[in-house]
Amino acid sequence: MTTATTSAYDQLTARLREGATYGSIGMLLSWDQETKMPPRAAGFRAEQLSAMSKLAHERLTDPALGELISACESDSEVQSDPVKAANIREARRDFDRATRLPTELVVEMTETSSRAMNAWKDARKKSDFSLFEPWLEKQVALNRRKAECYGVPEGGELYDALLEDFEPGMRTADVKKLFGPLRERLTPLIAAVVEKGPIHNDAAGRRCEIHLQQKFLEEVAGAVGYDMDGGRIDKTTHPFCESMGPSDTRITTRFDEENFLDALQTTLHEAGHAMYEQGLEKEAHFGEPRAEAVSLGIHESQSRMWENQVGRSEAFWAWALPLAQRVLRPALDDLTVAQAHAASNIVKPHFIRVESDEATYNLHIMLRFDIERLMLSGDLAVKDVPAWWNDRMKTDLGLDVKNDAQGCLQDVHWSMGAIGYFPTYTLGNLYCAQFWNAANEAMPSLMSDIAKGEFSGLLSWLRENIHKPGRTYKAPELCERVTGKPLSHEPLCEYLESKLAKIYGL
Ligand code: ZN
């Protein structure tokens, strides 16, 4: 019995590896599409991508996979190993979710997404919501069906079923409990900053050639611990990180000649995602849940930590400014650490989420979290989305939205059919602030190490506590294990309040 079921476990991990390998080929194709592909290849690339995703989906929903999972579930010896047990638990979860969606629904969602995305691009360009409205209507209806297929957890709501795709184990009610008090603390903080008036941006308008910025970023990314032998940095309009195999995690960034801070922050963000992927145990366990990212929120906590807690700190600038001055000479010669620090922490309400600062960003997310639930429940008609959006922007950020392009048409997510995704960004900020406190408690010299350009202590701590477990624990449990407390709004509020008080003299 033992031999037969042990081999069921080996067969299971081999199958998971095979499925993940197909997935990784799809990722390589899409990375190439975003970075190097000649424009005329687009048509056939779509065919290649859909062939790969079909293969991967067939593997994921193959009844034989379900049988192997069942065999492992009833093997007490395999179950007595906590890591193997977690692998089986997560494989079961993935299999059940994948098989709960009827094929015709999956096909309809895929087809709708590619057409909706084209409609969205056109609508955004013309700043005309009515062109996207029927597609959003359709995406909301499809998401409702998808959520019904997944099933509403006991005592939960329809939105829970969608959130589970992106932040497993987190419920809508949990998110509300976190976002409510966060909003109450952020609103007066942002109001105080706005009232104080803008601080001068001493880093703005300094012309730094792109190839020099590139050199600077490669040095910074290497110094913080992004393994460039298993990665690379390319240039795209919309930066991303893509991990396509055990030793291949690539990032992209964007450049602005007049604003070197943008490329730096973007690169640190994507490198943070990449270092998480590089810290997962993929070499030995590729395809197994234990070697996969636990949730989008945790993923985002890693990118934000390097971008914000590290990259926007005074200690970081004490190390990075001399390097930047040397490489980007002579553009930054008279810039001081205090000026660079202040310039990277300017808080200013903005129409666009992705251009927003650390504090106001979260209000953008809460808006989306609320409007998505209203659309899904039917309490808000899709045609009323722009008016609702603009009202809320006025209340929360004091901004008058002048057109749909800078309002409800700015994000790609809904066109792709991704509803339930947005909250993970702010959850990432919350996890990040809480992990950051734990890291500083564990390493009292962390800030002085950073000022010396020593980042390996932090990276090792993240590897050990957050990266290595993969999906062994759900995100809320991981948080409690690492920080001793459930996820809370407090650490992020305290972090922002104390930093902004200092910079803005509140
Ligand atoms: Zn990110």
What does this structure look like?
The protein is mainly α and 506 residues long. The protein is 66% helix and 2% strand. Strands 1-3-2 form a 3-stranded mixed beta sheet, sandwiched between helices. A hairpin with a 5-residue loop joins strand 2 (241-243) and strand 3. The chain is globular and about 65 Å long. The termini are far apart. Bound molecules: zinc ion. Zinc ion (ZN) binds at residues 269, 273, 300, 303.
Give the topology, please.
Blueprint: H1 2-35, H2 42-61, H3 63-73, H4 76-79, H5 82-100, H6 103-126, H7 129-150, H8 158-166, H9 172-196, H10 210-224, E1 233-235, E2 241-243, E3 249-253, H11 260-279, H12 282-285, H13 296-310, H14 314-327, H15 337-343, H16 361-377, H17 385-397, H18 423-442, H19 446-451, H20 456-467, H21 475-483, H22 490-504
Parallel strand pairs: 1-3
Antiparallel strand pairs: 2-3
Helix pairs in contact: 1-2, 1-3, 3-5, 6-7, 7-8, 9-22, 10-11, 10-14, 11-13, 11-20, 13-18, 14-15, 16-17, 16-18, 18-22
Bound molecules: zinc ion.
Give a brief rundown of this model.
The protein has 506 residues and is mainly α. The protein contains 22 helices and three strands.
Please give a handful of descriptors for the protein shown.
about 0% strand; about 500 residues; binds zinc ion; 3-stranded mixed β-sheet; 22 helices; mainly alpha
- Rg over CA atoms, rounded to whole Å, is 23 Å
Q: What composes the largest sheet?
A: 3 strands, mixed
What is the topology, as strand order, of the major beta sheet? 1-3-2
Bound molecules: zinc ion
What is the N-to-C order of secondary-structure elements (H for helix, E for strand)? HHHHHHHHHHEEEHHHHHHHHHHHH
Average pLDDT rating: 95
Helix content: 55-70%
